[in-house]
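To whoever picks this up:

The parser on our side crashed when reading a file containing two proteins. I've narrowed it down to the boundary between the first structure block and the second sequence. Both blocks are reproduced below exactly, byte for byte. First block:
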Amino acid sequence: MILESTLTCPICGHKAKEKMPTDACQFFYECAGCKKLLKPLAGDCCVFCSYGDVPCPPIQSGDTDCC
């Protein structure tokens, strides 16, 4: 299982490598570039599934109803 994902801000394009939680989904993330608060896109469980290059651990393990 991959526990790090690079988040890319859809507003300013800033990229940051972040460690993903294994016990919960992360619903909010503040971009270090523009300071905007990111939320998951419709249909995604967390910011990693919406803006990351690797989906969250529950999705990686096949849990389609992770949160």
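<<boundary where parser fails>>
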Amino acid sequence: MTIPLAMFESPTQWMVVLVIVLLLFGGSKIPEMMKGLGSGMREFKKSMNEEPEATKTTDEKKPE
């Protein structure tokens, strides 16, 4: 079984990929994309740590 990122075995192959990404998106777009990716990951981690609303309401007992 191989790791998908292992298909790039040499630094030259990584450099070619980086050049293609720079040509496609441009130097100014890449920081914006990374910022969006970081905020998305932060939101995902935050939602994973929060308790779902359904469990919160079922655990609370209402006085009768």
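After patching the parser it read the second block fine. The first helix runs from residue 11 to 25. Helices lie at 11-25, 29-49, 53-59.
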